[in-house]
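User: I'll paste a sequence; please echo it back and then give the predicted structure.

Assistant: Echoing your sequence first, then the prediction.
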Amino acid sequence: MKNIVTLFLSFCFIITSFAQTGKVFDNLSIKSNILKSERKFAVYLPPDYETSERSYPVLYLLHGLGDDQTGWVQFGEVLRITDAAIKEGSATPMIIIMPDANTEKIGYFNSIDGDWNYENFFFKEFMPTVEKKYRIKSSKRFRAIAGLSMGGGGTFMYALHRPDLFSSACPLSAFIGPRTIDEYKDWQKRLGNDVVVSDKKIQTYLETHNALSLINNTPVEESKSVHWYIDCGDDDFLFEGNSLVHIAMRKNNIPHEYRVRNGAHNWTYWREALPEVLFFVSKTFHQH
């Protein structure tokens, strides 16, 4: 009889263990009046979301060029990695929101001609919608942002444009934004955008869409209110820009974690970075 009870309890434990997994939905959408289209997004919900009534901190996780809202799900293995981090206690249970910035037009920034105002959409429509839809703690203390490559650029821009909204920011292998007029034109050409504007207008645009310019021009106390974790591989073609950001932050006395690991601009690198991001933002959720 004792053996039967033991086996039954073991069976129940196994079932419970398998049940304690998060869930990912990667084909959700909201209607955007600003972008005049349906916008897709993915969400990760922590293991106890359906069995609790509490609210959770949130991480906005941005994909790179060529991917969409499914990038972190399919290639970044966000479900497996986040479940494991929560289970071992290195990350607090959180909701992860992954928007799509790769449909129709591309990018997280507002376009120079005002034809694609994705940043306006993100702050005015997307964030308010998802933070009402899910049990999210809608305050700076419990909100973080991270992203890779183009999404790393979005992470820099959003956290520097709105430091009042994010407690931590984690750009990975980030595109820091064009630094010169020629870089801007080449960037737009690679994105397939054929926009003709004056060099003067481009220069004005660069002042608010390049991480170096923003770090040097944003009030230091505002930049310091965000906890920064910057990570870029030593073989990454974007290594120079990330190194310059690190130097600029040091010169401006902006505290930050700067990591250079062995690796290139690929998913192997970013999968290895994600547990560190989850650990970093979790510390920030708890500390402030």
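The beta strands are 23-32, 37-45, 58-62, 95-99, 143-148, 168-172, 227-231, 256-259. Confidence is low (pLDDT under 50) at residues 5-18.
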